[in-house]
Design a protein that fits this description.
Residues about 15-30, about 430-450 and about 465 have low confidence and may be disordered. The protein has a 5-stranded parallel β-sheet with strand order 2-3-4-1-5, with helices on both faces. It has a two-stranded antiparallel ribbon with strand order 6-7. The chain folds into 3 domains: about 25-260, P-loop containing nucleotide triphosphate hydrolases (Rossmann fold, 3-Layer(aba) Sandwich), CATH 3.40.50.300; about 265-345, no CATH class; about 350-465, no CATH class. The longest helix has 19 residues, at about 20-40. It is an alpha/beta fold and about 475 residues long. It has helices at about 20-40, 65-75, 95-105, 130-140, 145-155, 165-180, 205-220, 235-240, 260, 265-285, 285-290, 295-305, 310-320, 330-335, 350-370, 380-390, 400-405, 415, 450-465; strands at about 85, 110-115, 195, 225-230, 255-260, 425-430, 445-450. Helix content is about 50%, strand content about 10%. Helix 7 (about 205-220) links the parallel strand 3 (about 195) and strand 4 (about 225-230). It comes from Candolleomyces aberdarensis. InterPro entries: NPHP3-like_N, P-loop_NTPase. This is Nephrocystin 3-like N-terminal domain-containing protein. Keywords: Repeat. It holds the Pfam family NPHP3_N.
């Protein structure tokens, strides 16, 4: 920039140098780290992101009990467990609960950061953006924290390429401790809730396990005020960390809510269906839908039974019935009368089909990709166990342990077979054995579907796969 690039040994008298440009450059340099951070943030993952417009949340008057329990835990900063993990079946309403909690925490100024994973979004189906996104939200809550995070990035511009545990220590833990020690941040009033939804939608078991481990070693093992709420399907990496076993390093540290087991959503689903379907009828031009006795109580109860406690079924029905290009009366009847063998062209539960198909396909690929699989067909084995659990094979239902041997699976082979279907099916002890039986430690598990709808979806998928 010099106009005398080769000049030397000269003096200029009466020259005034104004510091404003220097100050401006200093400010720009101080913001470089923050600008780099913003380039590595997944804005779609925020709870109020424009990309997540009209995200599912709990209707007023529904999920009241579980919502209260979650908020009580978040607000009780003296409770010893600073990690809450909520697991539940596919479609149990985990994301709706997270969205509802995010809104409540935002209103009460306790929301520090939120990250909503999504398998279909490349910015939020992996670990690349989660720590920068959390750090950015926390930095926006306090100017001193923001400046400290920026400085950390300037000192290590490659931080975004490092392991997420290093990122968490560098961008969250160390800056937070620094500003607390300097007195520039009051930890007692700082928004302390960190929400992570849909960990199962982060691709790869290793990535899911890495994030759980990072939360433990960085956020729980340090003296930080954060309370972390993670929701997920009960996939292997999550189950292993939370189980009371050798690998369960979070068993004592986490408050674990098993949503599908601990809270019966039947009454909430019934209320949701009545409210939503009646609302659709009132807005419809079809006079049949405006009739006070539509829908009938019988119709609603059939839908409630078919939902089997899974909100996603009810939400899928409502979405289909609300389509403006058709009569809600006819579309509701199509849902109630639909069967996989009916040959209908309409697919009222297509969104549910996609969800179940993706879970089943992933489980199939993982099972058949193991070298010890010996070429066995995953779908046929699942179907065989399902038929045995229904008592449709032979005169007497075999124990699952015995049935493994009948179909030439290794001992406890059904455990491996259903390992990646935990979000669709659950296991219970075989009633054929008493607790005093010699084989008490080998009690077989019987696979039970959450609903007949799951069986129908599976059967249809299996038939298509065979074709």
């Amino acid at each position: 920039m010099s106009i005398l690039p080769n000049a030397q040994n000269f003096r200029v008298d009466n020259m005034h140098i104004y510091p404003s440009q220097h100050v401006q450059n200093t400010q720009d340099n101080r913001m470089d780290g923050w600008k780099m951070l913003l380039k590595n943030v997944a804005s779609n993952a925020l709870h109020d992101s424009r990309a997540r417009f009209d995200a599912p949340k709990c209707d007023e008057g529904t999920r009241v009990e579980v919502t209260k329990e979650l908020m009580d835990w978040i607000q009780d900063c003296d409770a010893p467990q600073r990690l809450l993990c909520m697991t539940g079946a596919a479609g149990a309403g985990k994301s709706a609960l997270q969205q509802t909690i995010a809104g409540k925490c935002s209103d009460s100024n306790t929301l520090g950061a939120a990250f909503f994973f999504s398998a279909g979004d490349p910015t939020r189906n992996n670990l690349s953006y989660i720590v920068p996104t959390i750090a950015c939200q926390l930095g926006l809550r306090n100017p001193a924290l923001r400046d400290t995070i920026s400085k950390a990035i300037e000192e290590d511009p490659l931080i975004f390429e490092r392991q997420i545990r290093v990122q968490m220590d560098t961008l969250v833990v160390a800056p937070f401790k620094h500003v607390c020690a300097s007195g520039e941040l009051d930890r007692s009033t700082f928004p302390h809730c960190i929400l992570i939804d849909g960990l199962d939608e982060c691709s790869g078991e290793d990535n899911q396990a890495e994030l759980m481990s990072t939360v433990k070693h960085c956020l729980l093992d340090n003296d930080l005020p954060f309370r972390v709420f993670i929701s997920s399907r009960p996939e292997l990496a999550i189950r292993s960390a939370l189980d009371n076993g050798p690998e369960g390093y979070l068993y004592q540290l986490a408050y674990h809510i098993k949503l599908s087991d601990m809270y019966d959503a039947t009454s909430d689903i019934r209320r949701y269906l009545w409210t939503r379907v009646r609302g659709i009828g009132n807005r419809s031009r079809d006079r049949r839908a405006q009739f006070p006795l539509w829908p009938t109580e019988e119709d609603i109860e059939k839908l409630v039974a078919a939902a089997s406690g899974q909100f996603i079924y009810a939400a899928t029905v409502v979405k289909y019935v609300s389509e403006r290009r058709g009569s809600p009366v006819d579309r509701l009847r199509a849902v109630i009368d639909w069967t996989p063998e009916g040959g209908q062209q309409t697919r009222p539960l297509e969104l549910l089909d996609i969800l179940y198909r993706n879970i089943l396909s992933t489980a199939k690929d993982l099972y058949e990709g193991v070298d010890t699989n010996r070429g066995r067909d995953f779908l046929l084995l699942v179907r065989a166990h399902q038929m045995n659990s229904d008592g449709r094979i032979g005169m007497v239902q075999s124990s699952t342990r015995d049935y493994d041997e009948i179909i030439s699976l290794e001992e406890e082979g059904h455990q491996v077979l259903f390992s990646d279907l935990q979000s669709l099916v659950y296991v219970r002890q075989d009633p054929a054995y008493s607790k005093n039986d010699l084989y008490e430690q080998e009690l077989a598990d019987i696979v039970e579907s959450y609903s007949d709808k799951w069986k129908e979806r599976y059967q249809e998928y299996g038939l298509k796969e065979k074709r």
